[in-house]
Request: fold
Amino acid sequence: MVAAARAAVVCGLGTHLPPRVVTNAELAREVDTSDEWIRSRTGIGRRHIAENGTATSDLAVEAGQRALKSASASGSAVAVDAVIVATTTPDHPCPATAPAVAARLGLGTVPAFDVGAVCTGFLYGLAAGGGLIAAGTAHGVLVIGAETYSSILDPADRSTRAIFGDGAGAVVLRAGEPDEPGALGPLVLGSDGTGSDLIRVPSGGSRDPVRPGHADRADPYFRMAGSKVFRNAVERMAEASQEAATRAGWTLQDIDVFVVHQANLRIMNAVADQMRLPRSRFPVHLDRVGNTAAASIPLALADAVTTGALRPGQRTALAAFGGGLTWGAATLTWPDITPV
Ligand code: ACO
Reply:
């Protein structure tokens, strides 16, 4: 007899933002920009920036600890036996950041690995975590999206410094039933590597290693052809959301809340318009944190719960788009959990 596939159920949510806040006005003192430009083109008002010496794992450990607290406060006595860290900004190119995070969380020798899908990383992490649970490899998975984007931004590049911020968010997944609140529906994921040059860090990898004597022509900073990916981001998130809804047996109209990657308010509005849905169903968090890449969705989820925009029992869609190019969407009925 074949055992029924086990669903992955969201049962805890935790976040962490580094304390230092940088407003648009402060940024405008360092690069040629203005509060008016940043707000009108992106919707962003401020972002959190990690202090020098704070690494991605430091933010990930804080968010992970809080997600574990949230899970136990919600009554889920889940033993976490796998850790996934989705990040664009690992502590080191080698090894992965997740094993260090697992160790610092006191989780012992559990499997731990990183997922690299840039801003879609958290959804790829949910898919990987759900897969570990469905396969019976794990019973409880901590999926963390954590970024210190400030560590890869060019101090002179106004277009990226205006957008990105640092932070971390995490969920605990446990094995459960597909019809429970919190159970992840079928995830939709995609990629198009023909656009891999549109969002990237040119140097520091095997294509262009940074070596003594070559450092002067290396470019170790994050580069994004923003206007070229704008339309792509809108179309891919709308299509993926539609497909995830269909696979869940829902129409787009059935979905109460869309927690989408907080890349740019204009992109979020365009996704809502393309799907002919009221913009009010798309909670906004980026005004206070900017684009936090792989941390964006769990941070936005926690904020939406805190503000009352996302409530238990509501039909919820998640969608993201990012470097790779990558994209994805997922559905779930929001569970009764309190973010920590
Ligand atoms: N302040 C003032 N002017 C600026 C700034 C700034 N902070 N940034 C760019 N500009 C200027 C540019 O230099 C350019 O000037 P020019 O015309 O003299 O050359 C002008 O503004 C227009 O630049 P665009 O890049 O065309 O501006 P746009 O309106 O497209 O906004 C943005 C840029 C915000 C990056 C937008 O394109 C965007 O959000 N793109 C999508 C980003 C995205 O979704 N990425 C994927 C997810 S993120 C990830 O995966 C890591």
